[in-house]
Structures are given as C-alpha cells and as structure tokens.
Design a protein that fits this description.
The chain is about 65% helix and about 5% strand. The chain is mostly helical. The chain has a two-stranded antiparallel sheet. It is elongated and about 65 Å long. It has a single domain, classed as Cytochrome c-like domain (Cytochrome Bc1 Complex, Chain D, domain 2). It binds heme C (HEC). Heme C binds near residues 47, 78, 85 and 88.
C-alpha cells in the first residue's frame, strides 16, 4: 500500500477511535450523573425533583424537565443550596460537574 494511503487509513482509524472513546466517555458520564441524581448525592436530588431521564418524581422542588436549568445554574444550586434545598458540601468538584452536565443534557438545556 502506498505511503499516503496508509497514512490516510491510519488517520481515519485514529478519528474513529477518538470518536468511539468520547462516546464511551459520554455514556459513562450519563450513567454516573444519573446515579449521582438518584443515589449518591445525600439527600438524593430525586427525593425533591422530577427528572424523567432518572425516573425521578419528587415534587418538593421545581420539575427539572420544565425548568431546564443549564449546567451552571445546576452547579450553583448544588454548591450553595437555594431556598429549602441544602448545599451539597460532600460532593467532589468532579461529581458536581458531572451532575450539572447530566441534568442540563437530559433536560435539553444549553451549556
Ligand atoms: C430537600 C429537597 C431538595 C433536594 C434534596 C434537592 N433540591 Fe433542588 N431544589 C429544591 C427546592 C425547594 C428548590 C427551589 C428553591 C427556590 O427557588 O426557593 C430547588 C431548586 C433547584 C434548582 C433550580 C435552581 C434555580 O436557580 O432556580 C436546581 C437546578 C436544583 N434544585 C437541582 C438539584 C439537584 C441537582 C439536587 C441534588 C444534588 C437537588 N436539587 C436536591 C429542593 C431540593
């Protein structure tokens, strides 16, 4: 196989691998976000909020599918608390970001 063909083929392969990798990562983050929402965060977000993707039907806080908060709004609420919602001091930086992105993604909010 001529050199340029080989090079093009390996570039294409690398692109496919990168794509597959990022999809896999996105998938993991979705699973992790859902788990944070329904289980890991204590008290669980799902107790107070409805979020269809997570099968959550809490009715104390706003319905997140309707509110469609973007990631920074979720982060702020989680870090500082708001109204009756507690601040979550026990979550790591990474967990807060994963959770915020998850909620923004599944509700269709922009970043
Ligand atoms: C004890 C019940 C409770 C729990 C648990 C709870 N929330 Fe809330 N949440 C509320 C209430 C009540 C509000 C409305 C507060 C207000 O506007 O006065 C709210 C508001 C919000 C808002 C909107 C903030 C804004 O800017 O208007 C977001 C986003 C949110 N919660 C996400 C979450 C996430 C994510 C979790 C889990 C880490 C969570 N909530 C856990 C009760 C709760």
């Amino acid at each position: 196989m001529p050199f340029y063909v080989r090079q093009a083929a390996s570039a294409a392969l690398a692109a496919v691998a990168a794509l597959a990798g990022s999809n896999a990562l996105a998938q993991v983050n979705m699973e992790e976000g859902k788990k944070l929402f329904t289980k890991t965060a204590a008290p669980a977000c799902a107790l107070c909020h409805s979020l269809e993707h997570a099968g959550a039907q809490g009715a104390i806080g706003p319905d997140l599918d309707e509110l469609k908060p973007d990631a920074s709004r979720v982060e702020k609420a989680v870090r500082n608390g708001i109204g009756q919602m507690p601040a979550y001091k026990g979550l790591t930086e990474q967990q807060v970001k994963t959770l915020a992105k998850y909620v923004a993604d599944v509700t269709g909010a922009a970043k």
